[in-house]
UniProtKB/TrEMBL annotation:
Protein name: Glutamyl-tRNA(Gln) amidotransferase
InterPro entries: Amidase, Amidase_dom, AS_sf, Carboxybiuret_hydro_AtzE
Biased composition (Basic and acidic residues): 140-150
All copies of domain Amidase, residue ranges: 25-441
Endpoints of the signal sequence: none
GO molecular function: catalytic activity
Region (Disordered): 140-160
One Pfam family of this chain: Amidase
């Protein structure tokens, strides 16, 4: 058996565990695809080939010895370069961080993926310090959209979107502060999971906004997404925000019916500032789920504004010493927003935090009568690389700041979301499947049902 690009993680793991495919062959196939296509995509900043081959050989030896190698046996994966990878400086998309000493230990989520049998093949391009929605990076160049390499991959986990959308690896890990898993998922036509805030450990990853930061997986199928998510669950004392909840596996629940779920369409704010393709994508998903109820998410616009205030001030605080010592080594677009954040008056931050508590309570009330909300993931399909502005509801607005217009009000209070790809022509676009806190299982069940109906799917890369 050969490891073809269209093999899912589940297929690879089954074949490796069953002796029909070696983990080394699966790894070599991924490394070959990276070598063949990454010149066009610019998804990878580091390829850990020697490490990957060593891990794969160890898996094959364990299988030969009759040992259980885990649910992700031999599955190649890669991580956004803000994850600590032992032996590499954790660059977080920046020039400054390249001067850091190499990490001595992997991030917790890498350790857990490899404990489940997965094989790390490299680190991925990203927007500088995760303050980005485009996938463009002035130090490493932009990661490119696998369906049209003249277009954005989305950010800040752009390399993760490119690598999975381009079928270089079946699974990648990224981070989402204000939308950085959901935006690349939408632009690159793949599935992404932003779990509940605190669900997955962030230990040994470079932060952006500690009170918003989430880590999570990308994949080309819901089953693969759930397999990766389940492998990474569990408490971790090394991340103070990580839940103490026990494991709550979702993979066994994927095929459960969704007919009993109360599914609604997010109205008002979430039906504004959208291009026709976003409207069509939400309509297709809603129709497939027989969702006709429209509910208002109270003060979503204010939630987005408050998210901006907290993001820019926390980010500025984190980077203040670097801004003072090495301002010229920042991406100017990132530097200027961080400087602006350092100047925001404290009373505004206090008001944003108070509003956040109110907003969380309002959404908790809403989820008493609704199990799932449907909303656009991005207002449009992937813009052209370098595009500065677009027109939203008749207003010319900057692209970089407004791609996350529909994601920010959701991550603001840490709700779990699965971004599902609707394969429109000529480019795919994502829809958010939003659930109540700790109910990733529900969001994944809905995504799985949509996938089985053929409404959502990760299209083959068209730009390679």
């Amino acid at each position: 058996m050969t490891a073809k690009p269209d093999l899912s993680a589940a297929d690879i793991a089954k074949a490796v565990a069953g002796g029909k495919l070696s983990a080394l062959d699966a790894t070599e196939a991924a490394l070959a695809r990276i070598k063949q296509h990454d010149g066009a995509l610019n998804a990878f900043t580091d390829v850990t080939a020697d490490r990957a081959r060593s891990k794969a050989r160890a898996i094959d030896a364990d299988i030969a010895a009759g040992k259980d190698v885990g649910p992700l046996a031999g599955v190649p994966f890669a991580v956004k370069n803000l994850f600590d990878v032992a032996g590499l400086p954790t660059r977080a998309g920046s020039k400054i961080n390249r001067d850091r000493a190499p990490a001595e230990r992997d991030a917790t989520l890498i350790e857990r993926m490899e404990a489940a049998g997965a094989v790390l093949v490299g680190a991925l391009n990203m927007g500088e310090y995760a303050y980005d929605f485009t996938g463009e990076n002035i130090h490493d160049g932009p990661s490119r959209n696998p369906h049209d390499t003249t277009r954005m991959s989305g950010g800040s986990s752009g390399g993760s979107g490119s690598a999975v959308g381009g079928a270089l690896v079946p699974i990648a890990l990224g981070s989402d502060t204000n939308g950085s898993i959901r935006v690349p998922s939408s632009f690159c036509g793949i599935f992404g999971l932003k779990p509940t805030y605190g669900r997955l450990s962030r230990a040994r990853s470079f932060p952006f906004v500690a009170s918003f930061d989430h880590l999570g997986p990308f994949a080309r199928s819901v089953t693969d997404l759930a397999l990766a998510y389940d492998a990474m669950q569990g408490p971790d004392a090394d991340d103070a925000a990580c839940t103490t909840r026990g494991l709550e596996p979702t993979t066994p629940l994927l095929a459960n019916p969704v007919s009993d779920l109360r599914i609604a369409i997010a109205g008002g704010y979430f039906q504004k500032n959208v291009f026709p393709e976003a409207v069509e994508a939400v309509s297709r998903v809603a129709k497939a789920l027989n969702a006709t109820r429209v509910v208002e998410v109270p003060e979503a616009a204010r939630a987005r504004a408050a998210a901006y205030v907290i993001s820019t001030t926390e980010g500025a605080s984190l980077h203040l010493d670097r801004l003072r010592k090495r301002p010229s080594d920042f991406d100017p677009a990132v530097r200027d927003r961080l400087i602006a954040g350092a100047m925001v008056p404290a009373p505004l931050v206090d008001r944003a935090q108070k509003f956040r508590r109110w907003y969380r309570a309002q959404l908790a009330q809403l989820f008493r009568s609704v199990d799932v909300l449907i909303a656009p993931a991005t207002p449009c399909t992937a813009p052209k690389l370098g595009q500065v502005n677009f027109n939203l509801d008749g207003v010319e607005l900057p692209v970089r700041a407004n791609i996350g217009i529909h994601t920010q009000p959701i991550s603001f209070i840490g709700l779990p979301v699965v971004a599902v790809p609707v394969p429109l022509e000529p480019l795919p676009i994502g829809v958010q499947i939003i659930a109540a806190p700790w109910r990733e299982d529900i969001a994944l069940r809905v995504a799985y049902a949509l996938e089985k109906m053929g409404v959502v799917a990760a299209p083959a890369p068209r730009g390679l």
